């Protein structure tokens, strides 16, 4: 984006503003040059201006700002001046268009400077004089012990809790180790020493007390809350976003993002260890599978780096400066049917959205809660048992020798396979006798068979989880040994067994996070197990308050919360009538092979008494799958018994999560299975199996009568020629 014309004072600052490396200017000089630019830019005349009978307060005009930059000698052309202005707008959030509809340009458009105090901002570190960061609290000291065989977790530093602001300590105790990646993550999704937005009137709002009145208040900043607040603010609403923990919620911090980063490393390790497949493909690794070494701390560090990199999109700075959302870090509680209290301040809303998500459940087992709390203790030098849920799994820095997983659902299956492929011995426990209980049994067994082939053991007939305790022994990896006692069905008899391990992951589902908000004061009904009581429009029993995401829905997926949020924006702000029941929500399990599903399962159809037909295309008949040596799995599509209307589908195979979207699109647009057969796919691709399933349906339309007519037409042409 750098102009080809030579600038006098601005060569290097223009380069930096657009992230082009500077070779001649020091960081200090660069900061000073940018500060000078900001100072020059702020000298442009600001005043109240009218457009279409509407007054915009204290704004400036784009063309005048361009004139100002050129007159100051910081740009030689209007094009360069526009580049400088756009950089100050986009990268440094100095100003914005009055309705956020335009980038900075050399036109008669109105802009105003952004007041950080109105949106919320980082506090200042009194020692450094700069904005507070989590690195300010990093304590690099390590604990010592006389026993050299014993090492303590975490291996990397914890924060110094003596200097962390009290309101931020709960965050510091859940995300660790506090290395550079996690410090950057926290700077973005829970900046320390955050200053709440100052009370102020919204644009053109002069009513008494209106400085604390919002068009929309959103409680919870996971996927649903972020989409709701960003979308509403983008449409002109004054929005307050309240979050007590981390922006980005589970998906960014302890769910989708870190788990997929871990799975990627695990799959790379597995591919390198598959010496038989490699040799059949003409590739030999000297030393075989034993030559492949997994550096587990490095695997986890990569996960933390990727999570940190992705967190920019969910950052407080982006939501305040770029999107115009007023961000509060604190615990929001209802004080009436239209007010919320956060950090001692009462906020009034015209509409509100609860998007507080959920939290992992712990099973009833003697000793489990105690060990889980001990595992998350902030006590320096404490021996921490590795007893985890998904919220703490990604804090690991030492690889367990033996990991036991309670729960054979999505999280349990994904993480058990990943940890086994990274080198831990893994055992999965369950009660139901099967894995992935939502999926068709034969399809879930395809996944189970592959995970068993990877080395994972399954014990799925547990009758009771009796107890768990520390044995007092510390293994050579520094982790304390645990002993779990269970009762399970073996050979038709219930027997008691003891299982030794050095890590336990509890993955038995999630509960809605609906307590502690004084919902009763707002007239909002809820169930501690099912969540908020909402109707098909996601409206709670308070006509001003809506629910979004895991706190009110059985579809506990990030993408489901995203589209529920889009629904609520329409319904809350624009008198919409969008319905949850109209959504078609696909979902995937990212094991190897993957599972992708959408719509109704066979069990659903039978339960509802809907007549249906099933069509399947196995990957063993797909040329690309054969070439890739990935023939396990199939495409299964269920259609109405009397038409080609798609009612549901499941895919098991490599890339199933991507392929299910084509079927989702067909269902969304009312495209029948027969028409899918006419969609040309590149050859060879595994997605062509979807088209081929359509061919199978079309063959059923060729009844004996139809075939007889077609044969007659061919014969007529023979005689006619």
Distance between the termini: 69 Å
Q: What is the β-strand count? A: 30
Portion in helices = 25-40%
Mean pLDDT, all residues: 88
Question: What's the assembly state of these chains?
Answer: single chain
Based on Cα principal axes, name the global outline. globular
The major β-sheet equals: 7 strands, mixed
Structural class: alpha/beta
What is the count of DSSP helices, taking H or I runs of 4+ residues? 24
Low-pLDDT stretches are 1-25, 140-158
Beta-strand content: 15-25%
Radius of gyration: 30 Å
Characterise the protein shown here:
This protein is of the alpha/beta class and 721 residues long. The protein has 24 helices and 30 strands. The strands form eight sheets. Strands 7, 8, 9, 10, 11, 12 and 25 form a seven-stranded mixed β-sheet that branches. A five-stranded parallel β-sheet has the order 14-21-15-16-17. Strands 26-27-30-29-28 form a five-stranded antiparallel β-sheet, sandwiched between helices. Helix 16 (410-421) links the parallel strand 15 (402-406) and strand 16 (425-429). The termini are far apart. Mean pLDDT is 88; it is low at 1-25 and 140-158.
Descriptive keywords:
721 residues, alpha/beta, 5-stranded parallel β-sheet
Lay out the secondary structure.
Elements: H1 11-17, H2 27-41, E1 47-51, E2 54-61, H3 62-71, H4 78-90, E3 95-97, E4 110-113, H5 116-119, E5 121-122, H6 169-172, H7 180-189, E6 194-195, E7 213-219, H8 223-234, E8 239-243, H9 249-254, H10 256-273, H11 275-280, H12 296-310, H13 316-322, E9 326-329, E10 333-336, E11 339-342, E12 345-354, E13 358-360, H14 368-375, E14 387-388, H15 390-393, E15 402-406, H16 410-421, E16 425-429, H17 441-454, E17 457-459, E18 462-474, E19 480-490, E20 493-501, E21 503-506, E22 510-512, E23 526-527, E24 531-532, E25 545-547, H18 558-573, E26 587-589, E27 594-599, H19 602-608, E28 612-618, H20 623-627, E29 634-640, E30 646-653, H21 656-669, H22 673-676, H23 688-700, H24 704-720
Parallel strand pairs: 7-8, 7-12, 8-9, 12-25, 14-21, 15-16, 15-21, 16-17
Antiparallel strand pairs: 1-2, 2-4, 3-4, 5-6, 10-11, 11-12, 13-22, 18-19, 19-20, 23-24, 26-27, 27-30, 28-29, 29-30
Helix pairs in contact: 3-4, 7-12, 8-18, 10-12, 10-16
């Amino acid at each position: 984006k750098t102009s080809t014309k030579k600038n006098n004072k601005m060569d290097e600052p223009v380069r930096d503003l657009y992230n082009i490396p500077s070779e001649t200017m020091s960081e200090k000089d660069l900061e000073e040059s940018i500060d000078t630019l900001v100072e020059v830019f702020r000298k442009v005349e600001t005043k109240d201006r009218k457009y279409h009978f509407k007054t915009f307060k204290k704004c400036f005009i784009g063309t005048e700002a361009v004139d100002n930059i050129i007159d100051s000698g910081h740009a030689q052309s209007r094009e360069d001046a526009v580049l400088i202005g756009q950089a100050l707008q986009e990268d440094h959030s100095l100003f914005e268009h009055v309705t956020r509809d335009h980038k900075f340009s050399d036109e008669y458009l109105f802009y105003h400077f952004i007041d950080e105090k109105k949106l919320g901002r980082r506090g200042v570190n009194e020692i450094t004089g700069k904005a507070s960061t989590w690195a300010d609290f990093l304590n690099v000291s390590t604990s010592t012990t006389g026993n050299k065989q014993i090492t303590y977790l975490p291996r990397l530093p914890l924060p110094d809790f003596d200097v962390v602001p009290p309101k931020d300590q709960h965050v510091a105790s859940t995300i660790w180790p506090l290395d550079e990646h996690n410090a950057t993550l926290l700077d973005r999704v829970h900046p320390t020493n955050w200053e709440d937005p100052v009370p102020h009137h919204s644009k053109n709002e002069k009513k008494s007390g209106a400085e604390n009145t919002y068009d929309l208040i959103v409680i919870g900043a996971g996927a649903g809350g972020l989409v709701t607040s960003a979308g509403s603010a983008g449409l002109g609403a004054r929005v307050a976003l309240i979050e007590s923990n981390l922006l980005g919620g589970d998906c960014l911090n302890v769910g989708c993002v870190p788990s997929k980063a871990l799975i990627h490393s695990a799959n790379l390790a597995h591919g390198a260890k598959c010496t038989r497949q490699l040799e059949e493909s003409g590739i030999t690794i000297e030393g075989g599978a034993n030559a492949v070494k997994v550096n587990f701390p490095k695997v986890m560090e990569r996960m933390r780096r990727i999570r940190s990199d992705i967190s920019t999109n969910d950052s407080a700075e982006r939501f305040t400066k770029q999107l115009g959302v007023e961000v509060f870090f604190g615990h929001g509680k209802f004080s009436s049917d239209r007010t919320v209290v956060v950090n001692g301040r009462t906020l009034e809303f015209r509409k509100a959205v609860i998007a507080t998500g959920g939290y992992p459940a712990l099973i009833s087992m003697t000793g489990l809660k105690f060990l889980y709390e001990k595992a998350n203790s902030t006590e320096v030098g404490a021996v921490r048992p590795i007893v985890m849920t998904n919220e703490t799994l990604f804090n690991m820095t030492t690889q367990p020798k033996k990991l036991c997983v309670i729960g054979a659902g999505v999280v349990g299956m994904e993480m058990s396979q990943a940890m086994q492929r990274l080198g831990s011995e893994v055992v999965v426990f369950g009660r139901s006798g099967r894995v992935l209980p939502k999926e068709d049994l034969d399809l879930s067994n395809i996944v189970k068979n592959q995970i068993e082939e990877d080395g994972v053991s399954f014990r799925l007939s547990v009758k009771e989880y009796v107890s768990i305790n520390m044995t007092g022994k510390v293994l050579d990896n520094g982790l304390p040994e645990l002993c779990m006692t269970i009762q399970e069905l073996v050979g038709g008899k219930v027997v008691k067994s003891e299982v030794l391990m050095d890590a336990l992951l509890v993955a038995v589902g999630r509960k809605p996070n609906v307590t502690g908000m004084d919902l009763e004061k707002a007239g909002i009904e809820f169930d501690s197990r099912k969540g908020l009581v909402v109707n098909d429009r996601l409206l709670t029993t308070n006509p001003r308050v809506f629910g979004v995401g895991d706190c009110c829905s059985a579809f506990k997926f990030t993408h489901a919360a995203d589209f529920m949020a889009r629904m609520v924006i329409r319904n809350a702000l624009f008198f919409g009538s969008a319905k949850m029941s109209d959504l078609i929500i696909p979902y995937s399990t990212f094991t190897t092979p993957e599972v992708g599903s959408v719509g109704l399962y066979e069990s659903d159809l039978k339960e509802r008494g809907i007549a249906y037909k099933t069509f399947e295309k196995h990957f063993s008949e797909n040329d690309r799958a054969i070439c890739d040596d990935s023939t396990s799995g199939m495409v299964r599509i269920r259609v109405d018994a009397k038409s080609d209307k798609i009612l549901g589908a499941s895919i098991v195979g490599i890339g199933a999560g991507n392929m299910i979207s084509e079927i989702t699109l067909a269902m969304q647009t009312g495209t029948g299975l027969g028409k899918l057969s006419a969609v040309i796919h590149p050859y060879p691709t595994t997605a062509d199996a979807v088209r081929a399933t359509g061919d199978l349906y079309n063959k059923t339309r060729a009844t004996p009568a139809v075939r007889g007519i077609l044969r007659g037409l061919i014969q007529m042409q023979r005689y006619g020629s």
